[in-house]
Specification:
about 70 residues; mainly alpha; 3 helices
């Protein structure tokens, strides 16, 4: 389970880093890359990052049952 979670975290960070590199490198200029693709890449990176961190978070079932 930790391997999948760490993989999601790394993939999320890589997607966000790639988005930053694309935006800083003027890849979103007209005719190169649609802004929707950069937004989608950033969104998928965020979802993967949060999902991986949620999988790594320990769960305490006794405190949830009250």
């Amino acid at each position: 389970m930790p391997r999948i979670a760490f993989g999601l975290v790394v993939a999320g960070l890589a997607c966000i880093l790639l988005t930053v590199v694309l935006v800083m490198g003027d890849a979103t200029l007209p005719g190169r890359l649609p802004p929707f693709a950069a937004a989608l890449l950033a969104g998928l990176g965020g979802v993967a990052l949060v999902g991986g961190l949620c999988l790594l978070e320990p769960r305490d079932r006794q405190s949830l049952s009250g």
